[in-house]
Amino acid sequence: MEVILKKNVENLGFKDDVVKVRDGFGRNFLIPQGYAVMATDSARKSHTEVLRQRSHKESKIREAAEAIAAKLEGVTVQVRAKVGDTGKIFGSIHAIAISEALKSMGIEIDRKSITILGDNIKELGTYKANAILHKDVKKEFAFEVVEE
Questions:
Q1: Which CATH superfamily is 2-62 part of?
Q2: What is the pLDDT of residue 148?
């Protein structure tokens, strides 16, 4: 079964991609949840028309994503956390904290597009994260967990 994705689906594809999935996955999950529509002839025609109209807007969005990626080049983001006597942090660092630290630096990145590379972060130090700014623009950057 082929479907047209209406939203980004992790490990499957990005919005407006035409992907082939198993019948049950498409019929029982993707379509009822609003993540996709069946790729019928009429849906494909309207999809191509929408893509044609959106193509010039897409280039502007990509340029904005590349500008954000350029801002992340060589920058180490400092994330503040409460630390106990032993040097371990209370809780752990998540993408929300990284997104807020970036926002304080003047860089707007949605928390859902940030992925922390490695295990859970429970100690002070420098770590890496990956930001998916556009389906073609991905940027890896460093962040440092410091004491609050």
A1: Ribosomal protein L9, N-terminal domain (3.40.5.10)
A2: 82
